[in-house]
Amino acid sequence: MDNKFKIKKMIYASVFAAMIFVATAFLQISGPTGYVHVGDGLIYYAACLLPFPYSAIAGALGAGLADLYLGYAIWIIPTFIIKFCMSLFFTSKSDKILCFRNYIALAVGGFINIAGYFISACIIYDWKIALTDIPGNIIQSVIAAAVFILLALTSKIFGERTKLNN
To answer: What torsion, rounded to 10 degrees, do the Cα atoms 166, 82, 147, 165 define?
Structure first.
């Protein structure tokens, strides 16, 4: 692969990491052990526009930096791992953002989010506190799916998507 295309992908990944950071840090509602945000929808969107590993790193970095900025530094490593894994199941190779694989990836990504933060909260706090986070993580996963679908539909209105993986 030509260096020009690698640099282009790194720039797109950096822009997505910044957008994910903003959507996570500033479009959120605080809870007892964390917060519910809309940044995951952008992680999914990036995973459909950028090839792996650029999309996964953008999502993990943007969300991890939001944790640091908001004072949840203890969550940076779990967030980085969870957000990285959430993007693995989306495809950037389809001609359409809303394809069968990406619909399935929404469910898988939501499950990874809920299970990942439950396991992490069990380790950081205890299982009783981890249980109280499940409803918030379910809400976050539903919001993320809605944001992703809205972004994908908006892309379709404006001419589907630009191939960022070239």
So the answer is: 0
